[in-house]
Design brief:
It is built from 18 helices and 11 strands. It is mainly alpha-helical and 488 residues long. Among the domains are: 34 residues; 257 residues, Cytochrome p450 (Orthogonal Bundle), CATH 1.10.630.10. The protein starts with a helix and ends with a strand. It binds protoporphyrin IX containing FE. Belongs to the cytochrome P450 family.
Length: 488
């Protein structure tokens, strides 16, 4: 702890200086420091732009259509331009990368992933058996291992054997090391760092920060660099192996046998074949996309799964309704892409849970042009933040916003969802490309778990303790989620 404080001290001082400068020099930053009225359980984003206020929520869609196109994700000491680019949604670079992502979320690919997800969900259900009837269990680590298993398999086509009880899980193996690298990247890149806030608030100083970080890396940055090196060696190895094979296949069939280590149908294999046959992507672009796939798909989906379980376990009547919907399909039911639509109530529980605890509690954009936004004058380059959490709890938009009421997401709901009142997956051109993947993954997992068990929430967890992780911003359970599991 001591060395950590000493190592962090220069950054804290620099952060403070930047904060003061940002407040003094930037009119929008001054606003950012104002407390947003409303229920905001974390300090940073609650103090950002209050776009969630009633009225402005409706302006959100138009505002995004006009100005919303930069989504700069900054990870570690080097900036990473992911599916984004300075030339934004209309730019050729963005279109090129988005074109490479799109095949992954077409029905043929989703069908392929459905099998992968169902296998993982069955393993997860089996791994919970020793906990059934035993003491309460923190489900967050188990759900994280489960989702990581799925995203890594989907991204690279490699089974890392992450789930508890997997007989092929071997400590010290290459896969084990890779798994630790992925976890290190996720933990260190996603955890709050003293320099992250001033970097976000004061983008003009980013080159200075990067230079300082490069010269005087802190412990987290060193760990992140090592993990990224291991991960990049692994991924570049796969790319080099796969490229010649992909060049020979005109159109590699989903599920067809391939000579190399990259499984057909994995995101990596789709990217490589897209790169061979459509638009040329460099090895680095392919690596960054695969890396981002894991970054974007891990904490978001594991959070969404954990929160839905939290809400179901805390509301026995809703859990009963979800159980009934699943039981109606028969004891031997096996989820498929085609049958997933038969669970409207379960999906409503998921969507309501995402409203109450959005894993991405805010989305950001940099303004391209000067504009007046409500009472604020926004200058080009200012970062604007749509405070999703506040939006989702606005009493003017939602009836009893703190209640878990999945029924409001059923088709039969009398009061429809007002336009602009949900920002779970973002809106417009830059909205979440992986949302169908995530919804499918969570529904399949819940179906398998609810087929086998019933759940109750352990005491003293309402409201749930959550924390915001920075860069990228995420809402995570800060003390776990404890559940009692009983076999059905
Ligand atoms: C419940 C799970 C998820 C949630 C809540 C979520 C939420 C979001 C949000 C809020 C954004 C930003 C939208 C905006 O700025 O307007 C986003 C972007 C993105 N997400 Fe997700 N996401 C989830 C799962 C996934 C998964 C599983 C993947 C990939 C496998 C993924 C890939 C992406 C990508 C690539 C972007 C950037 C899109 C672009 O810039 O065009 N997400 N997501």
């Amino acid at each position: 702890m001591g060395p950590f404080i000493v190592a962090s001290l220069p950054w804290l001082i620099l952060a403070f200086i930047c904060w003061v400068l940002a407040v003094l020099l930037n009119p929008l930053a001054r606003f950012r420091l104002r407390k947003v009225p409303g229920p905001t359980p974390w300090p940073l984003f609650g103090n950002l732009l209050e776009l969630s206020k009633r009225g402005e929520a409706f302006a959100l869609a138009d505002w995004k259509a006009t100005y919303g196109n930069i989504f700069k994700v900054w990870i570690g000491p080097t900036p990473m331009w992911i599916v984004s680019d300075p030339d934004m949604s209309s730019g050729p670079h963005y279109r090129k990368l988005k074109g490479a992502w799109t095949p992954l979320f077409l029905p043929a690919s989703l069908q392929n992933y459905c099998t992968l997800m169902d296998g993982a969900a069955c393993n997860l259900a089996a791994s919970l058996l020793p906990h059934a009837g035993a003491a309460e269990m923190n489900i967050v680590p188990a759900f994280e291992a489960h989702v990581l298993q799925i995203v890594v398999s989907a991204a690279f086509g490699v089974d890392l054997h992450l789930q508890a009880g997997d007989p092929l899980r071997t400590a010290g193996s290459e896969h084990d090391k890779l798994m630790h690298a992925v976890k290190d990247v996720l933990e260190t890149a996603g955890s709050a760092k003293p320099w992250a806030t001033p970097m976000i608030l004061f983008p003009a100083l980013q080159p200075l920060f990067r230079f300082l970080l490069h010269k005087f890396p802190d412990a987290a940055t060193i760990r992140l660099k090592q993990a990224r090196r291991r991960l990049s060696n692994f991924v570049y190895g796969l790319i080099h192996e796969e490229r010649p094979a992909a060049a020979q296949d005109k159109a590699p069939a989903m599920g067809s046998a391939r000579r190399t280590g990259v499984k057909p149908g994995s995101f990596l294999s789709l990217l490589i074949s897209h790169s061979q046959h459509n638009v040329q992507l460099t090895d680095e672009e392919i690596f960054v996309q695969a890396y981002f796939f894991i970054m974007a798909g891990f904490h978001t989906s594991s959070g969404a799964l954990s929160y839905t379980m939290y809400h179901l376990a805390g509301h026995p009547d809703k859990l009963k309704a979800a159980h009934e919907e699943i039981d109606a399909m028969g004891a031997e039911f096996k989820p498929t892409l085609q049958t997933l639509g038969s669970f409207p109530y379960l999906e409503a529980c998921l969507r309501e849970s995402l409203r109450l605890l959005p894993p991405v509690p805010a989305t950001q954009r940099y303004a391209r042009d000067r504009m007046a936004l409500g009472p604020f004058n926004v200058a080009p380059g200012d970062m604007l933040c749509a405070a999703t959490y506040n939006l989702h709890h606005d009493v003017g938009l939602w009836e009893k916003p703190f209640d878990f009421t999945p029924e409001r997401f059923m088709d039969t709901a009398e009061v429809g969802i007002k336009r602009g009142s949900l920002n779970t997956f973002g809106e417009g051109m830059r909205s979440c490309i992986g949302q169908n993947f995530a919804i499918m993954e969570i529904k399949i997992t819940l179906i398998r778990l609810l087929q086998a068990y019933t759940f109750t929430l352990a005491p003293n967890q309402v409201p749930l303790a959550v924390k915001a992780r920075s860069s990228p911003s995420l809402l995570s359970p800060s003390k776990g989620i404890y559940i009692n599991i009983v076999s059905r």
